[in-house]
């Protein structure tokens, strides 16, 4: 059974912040193996020129195909163009996120569950959950 996973690289996020793209850059991928093995493969091949990829979150997919989910991702999130940013070396699935949208989503979700309405500090797990929920 395939899984969808979200990975992040601190070096990639630092680069994004330095060039003014966004510090919230994440890689979305699919694997038939475990997500940890997929992250190891990303680091081994130096995906997008980075070797410090870490797993932010993953979810098993049932009944969804990769093409449909990636199409939905491109409609809902901003995907970096590898031709415009040669630093990412042809990586076509690096998404740029808007911090305010993620924070608003978390506040609404927590408020609907009866929690407090404070803006939380974003963690990679929160962002991965946001990305996966918006695609599935």
Distance between the termini: 15 Å
Number of strands: 5
> What's the Cα radius of gyration?
15 Å
Poorly predicted runs of 5 or more residues: none
What count of helical segments does DSSP give? 5
What is the residue-averaged pLDDT? 88
Fraction of residues in β-strands? 15-25%
How would you describe this structure to a colleague?
With 136 residues, the chain is α+β, with helices and mostly antiparallel strands. The protein has one domain (3-135). It contains five helices and five strands; from the N terminus they run E-H-E-H-E-H-E-E-H-H. A five-stranded antiparallel sheet has the order 3-1-2-5-4, sandwiched between helices. The longest helix has 14 residues, at 99-112. The protein starts with a strand and ends with a helix. 26% of the residues are buried. The mean pLDDT is 88.
Describe how the helices and strands are arranged.
Blueprint: E1 3-9, H1 10-19, E2 25-31, H2 35-45, E3 53-60, H3 66-76, E4 78-79, E5 94-96, H4 99-112, H5 124-135
Antiparallel strand pairs: 1-2, 1-3, 2-5, 4-5
Key attributes of the depicted protein:
alpha+beta; 136 residues; single chain; 20% strand; globular
Q: What is shown here, in short?
A:
It contains five helices and five strands; from the N terminus they run βαβαβαββαα. With about 140 residues, it is of the alpha+beta class.
